[in-house]
């Protein structure tokens, strides 16, 4: 099903390791881990990345996220289960993901909401996370890496 | 947050919605379309339309009926997933095209229809079309009225 195994290639494995280490830096940032999972999940849904949705829903579940909240990420705007801060992060994730031609980028309103709820370190982590998950979505969608068989923790030793 | 309007406060609309609400159980209980496929179809259309209420309802109903969390979580990205059958993928494809019919989208392709017809008989195809049409209408009721998802409880 997968078209090309990026990790089986020496250069691909090296690049994956660097990307993973950036992700670890973001993960250890003061941006709440639950918010990180919501952001990665929403971008992955928009980009149709099966592998990433599988990965981040399972990781979020292991971290204690409720099934109701996970199910409602796709329709967060019309849901009651997310905080104002999480909604600001999700709005940034959507606008930051849908930047292709015919969209208008990230609005001043969304940015002001992000500013209101997060400090500078958290904003750096958030912007990096949106950029990084969009890159990862593309790596996996382009080689058609499907979702369904991710096991939480399977990439834990990639940082070394 | 409260919904914007109580639609049932209008007697005429309440009467109309009564008929509308009566159509769904007929389809759900009497059609030959597998219940698991029904849930996948309703969930995917609700996700595309950003209907929090219906996403909450159909996600929880499906889980209550025994659907796995892994499959539910992958409905939004079914195309790039390994957990759906070819028949389910055909139904999901028809759902996506039938939901995204707005100007410029191109409607339902012959390929997608032929693929659905390969897996479903006429009764099931008719049910599939009816489900897709009804859930899209339901999504619009909820989104226009800002009826938000989060607090639905499946019937015991």
Write a short abstract of this structure.
With 160 residues, chain A is mainly α.
Low-confidence stretches of chain A: none
The best one-word shape of chain B is globular
Low-pLDDT sequence parts of chain B: none
- Radius of gyration of chain A (CA) equals 15 Å
Structure annotation, total helices of chain A: 7
Count up the helices of chain B: 7
Order of helices and strands of chain B: HHHHHHH
Question: Largest interface, and how many residues on either side?
Answer: A-B, 34 and 33 residues
Secondary structure layout plus pairing:
The complex is a heterodimer of chains A (160) and B (156).
Chain A: H1 10-27, H2 33-46, H3 50-62, H4 67-72, H5 84-97, H6 108-117, H7 120-142
Chain B: H1 11-30, H2 35-48, H3 52-64, H4 69-74, H5 86-99, H6 110-119, H7 122-144
Helix pairs in contact in B: 2-3, 2-5, 2-7, 5-6, 5-7
